[in-house]
TrEMBL record:
InterPro entries: ATP-dep_DNA_helicase_RecG, DEAD/DEAH_box_helicase_dom, Helicase_ATP-bd, Helicase_C-like, NA-bd_OB-fold, P-loop_NTPase, RecG/Mfd, RecG_dom3_C. It holds the Pfam family RecG_wedge. Gene3D superfamilies: Nucleic acid-binding proteins, P-loop containing nucleotide triphosphate hydrolases. Plays a critical role in recombination and DNA repair. Helps process Holliday junction intermediates to mature products by catalyzing branch migration. Has replication fork regression activity, unwinds stalled or blocked replication forks to make a HJ that can be resolved. Has a DNA unwinding activity characteristic of a DNA helicase with 3'-5' polarity. PROSITE patterns: HELICASE_ATP_BIND_1, HELICASE_CTER. Belongs to the helicase family. RecG subfamily. GO terms for biological process: DNA recombination; DNA repair. Its EC number is 5.6.2.4. This is ATP-dependent DNA helicase RecG. It catalyses: Couples ATP hydrolysis with the unwinding of duplex DNA by translocating in the 3'-5' direction; ATP + H2O = ADP + phosphate + H(+). It is an enzyme of class 5 (isomerase). Residues 285-447 form the Helicase ATP-binding domain. Residues 472-633 form the Helicase C-terminal domain.
Length: 701
């Protein structure tokens, strides 16, 4: 049977060399098997027949029974002609129009025979017309293998211009089922099909092309989506298993002086349960003979840094060096200041290398790296320069991974024959469902618990008309010594207007909160760096009460005494941005608040965004909603997801199926990784077929 599916498409009756060539070029259909896997984009209800007097000018697709009574060629512009046929039924008449392929269409049109036409109807000068309709004799129409739900296939302009209509593809599909007698082989193990109550492959293929009912279609779609996601997961997990065997890593066998000394005497706080769990996971990974490739996810403030530091201590305990790479100088500096404090207690040699490092200190760093006396190096992209050579890099930590390409990641470890363990940290909450399809080759650890004592930020949504009450609230908070952020959107496309809004806002706030009782800072991207620093300093030293700003404050600002975040025109921000902005408060011991200000007119998506922000502080939950609203391609930091080129499944809508598919792929491989059990013979065959195509490598990186 499988052999039959390898038959070149031109051999299918009704295709031939010309159409075969077109199908190859336009839809990538080379063989029978490719055609069977051309799944419809959508379906149309073809149980209903319209009368001409029922038509509406809404460009809906309709089918009508009637006759063509005449055909003529009309010149509508100099030298440009169209073919027009008059079509009638017992309620009226309309026109059928062709702009291309006149000759053979004209020849194929039958006058005064009962036909069924199908296409989009529009009205022009009081006359209904249908352009490039599908036409079928009523007698054929009644016989054809047709289902209530008519499949509409992907097409291209060239295809429809060259006479390969949806109808043609439909016919080819029927022919294919006839010739092959639909003897399609099963691809999933029987026990799985039974356990999950899936329909057999054969039935699924039939019903995806010729569904007898909406219910049959749903079952077919479910089965094929599951299968698609299942085989992707199977390959990803298998790849991970193979990698673990193949890529040797440095086994960190010792938990030594540095780690223990730090853990017993210098830990600045009690670790959270999540931090402990993640450190254990990392220790187990680095203790094995395989290279660690781990993604560490944790919301802003969840305490990833200490986990990274303790992992570095393990590297040093085992006689290796460690490095931490951050996306910006500011972040690298922050890490250096924080980690130096800890490292100094243990007499660890730690240094920082960025683009602005002076030549002398660079030289020293290069030397110490090569002779092995430098134990921890913090830095930016500068770490990737050729001159930076580690004596024995054992662990590379990468902060905020989405800003580094995969290529850059691997550049770090190309320097060593045995690659270092890699820990990638990200605060961008990538939903698990997405992460596991994108990074199926990375192991994932999640810090899903915030350090104790943090009070959850209270978030409310207020309309502009309630501003007076909000202002009263601000006054009360300032009266008890708190500070306030008021953030305006500044979005590139409408920069001028936004800037005006910001300035207008600043003026009216200055009026409502006048000197000398109140003082206000302002911060925006057009200011000189020195002025920005000065304003920021005034606010962080508590000299001003209110900071009016654009989203420039989104990254790296830390003022624990600021307890209220007001976001103006909140409907214009995306969810992840709102969440990042809110993360600027709630850093001290006081109760913090976030107030989302919007106008009354909100789209339903905006409403969902506001409701989500009000109902949860959980970055992962927010990311899940964001994913649903925007689709994976737009989710911040996951642009790579565009590579996921799925045929039928949709990782946003079909997340539950994805989770199920992953669960079962994992179960199967942990019981039978080589897929050698008799019940997995089918799986093995499909798997080998897939790896031959190598298409899975396109799914990742
Ligand atoms: P992020 O995950 O955003 O990088 P950090 O590692 O910068 O978070 O930690 C945020 C703050 O929380 C830091 O001031 C850190 O010292 C503190 N912190 C981290 N873990 C704990 C903990 N277990 N208990 C108390 N404070 C902690
Ligand atoms: Mg951090």
């Amino acid at each position: 049977m499988n052999n039959l599916l390898l038959t070149p498409i031109e051999y299918l009756k009704g295709v031939g060399p010309n159409r075969g060539e077109l199908l190859r070029k336009e839809l990538g259909i080379h063989k029978y098997g490719d055609l069977i896997n051309l799944y419809p984009n959508r379906y149309i209800d073809r149980t209903r027949y319209y009368k001409i007097n029922e038509l509406q000018n809404n460009a809906a697709e309709v089918q009508i029974i009637g006759k063509i009574i005449n055909v003529k060629t009309v010149e509508f512009a100099k030298g440009r002609k169209r073919l027009v046929a008059t079509f009638v039924d017992d309620t009226g008449q309309m026109e059928l129009v062709w702009f291309q392929g006149h000759k053979w269409i004209r020849e194929s049109l039958k006058i005064n025979e009962v036909i069924v036409i199908f296409g989009k109807c529009t009205s022009f000068n009081g006359m209904y017309n249908m352009a490039h309709p599908e036409i079928e004799l009523l007698s054929e129409h009644e016989q054809s293998l047709r289902s209530a739900m008519q499949a509409i296939y992907p097409s291209t302009e060239t295809l429809s211009n060259r006479g390969i209509s949806n109808r043609t593809i439909n016919k080819m599909m029927q022919q294919l089922f006839l010739e092959t007698q639909a003897l399609f082989t099963e691809t999933l193990p029987d026990y799985l099909i039974q356990q999950l109550q899936l329909i057999p492959k054969k039935a699924a293929l039939f019903n995806i092309h010729f569904p007898k009912s909406a219910e049959a279609l749903a079952k077919a779609q479910y089965r094929l989506k599951f299968e698609e996601l299942f085989f992707i997961q199977l390959q990803l997990i298998m790849k991970n298993l193979i990698q673990k065997h193949k890529i040797k890593g440095h086994p960190f066998t010792i938990v030594g002086e540095f780690f223990n000394e730090f853990y017993q005497n210098h830990l600045p706080f009690e670790l959270t349960g999540a931090q402990k769990r993640v450190i254990k996971e990392i220790r187990a990974d680095m203790g094995s003979n395989a290279q660690m490739n781990r993604l560490l996810q944790g919301d802003v403030g969840s305490g990833k840094t200490i986990v990274a530091f303790m992992s570095m201590l393990l590297a040093i305990d085992n006689g290796f060096q460690a490095c931490l790479m951050a996306p910006t100088e500011i972040l690298a500096n922050q890490h250096f200041i924080g980690l130096s404090e800890l490292a100094n207690k243990l007499n660890i040699n730690i240094k920082i290398l960025t683009g602005s490092s002076k030549t002398a200190s660079r030289k020293l760093i290069h030397e110490e790296l090569e002779n092995g006396t430098l134990q921890i190096l913090i830095g930016t992209h500068a770490l990737l320069e050729d001159k930076v050579k580690f004596k024995n890099l054992g662990l590379a930590v990468i902060d905020e991974q989405h800003r580094f390409g995969v290529e850059q990641r691997s550049k770090l470890w190309k320097k060593n024959t045995i690659p270092p363990h890699v820990l990638v940290m990200t605060a961008t909450p990538i939903p698990r469902t997405l992460a596991m399809s994108l990074y199926g080759d990375l192991d994932i650890s999640v810090i899903d618990e915030l350090p104790p004592g943090r009070k959850p930020i209270q978030t409310v949504h207020r309309f502009d008309s309630n501003r007076l009450k909000v202002w009263k609230f601000i006054r009360d908070e300032i009266a008890i010594g708190r500070q306030i952020y008021i953030v305006y959107p500044l979005i590139q496309e409408s920069e001028k207007m936004d800037f005006k809004d910001l300035m207008d806002g600043y003026e009216s706030i200055s009026r409502d909160f006048p000197l000398p009782q109140y003082s206000i800072s302002i911060l925006h991207g057009k200011m000189k760096p020195a002025d920005k620093d000065a304003e920021m300093k005034r606010f962080s030293e508590g000299k001003t009460n209110i900071m009016v700003a654009t989203t420039v404050i989104e990254v790296g600002v830390n003022v624990p005494n600021a307890s209220v975040m007001i976001i103006e025109s909140a409907e214009r921000f995306g969810l992840s941005q709102l969440h990042q902005l809110r993360g600027r408060v709630g850093r001290g011991a006081d109760q913090s608040y976030c107030i989302l200000m919007t106008s009354h007119k909100l789209s339903s998506d905006s409403k969902t965004r506001m409701e989500t922000m009000v109902s949860t502080n959980d970055g992962f939950e927010i990311a899940e909603v964001d994913l649903k609203l925007r689709g994976p391609g737009n989710l911040m930091g996951t642009q790579q997801s565009g590579v996921l080129n799925l045929q039928i499944a949709d990782i946003v809508r079909d997340r539950d199926i994805l989770a199920l598919a992953r669960e079962h792929a994992q179960k199967i491989l942990s019981a039978d990784a080589p897929l050698q059990k008799p019940e997995h013979a089918t799986l093995r065959a499909v798997y080998i077929e897939l790896t031959k195509k190598k298409n899975i490598w396109n799914y990742i990186s």
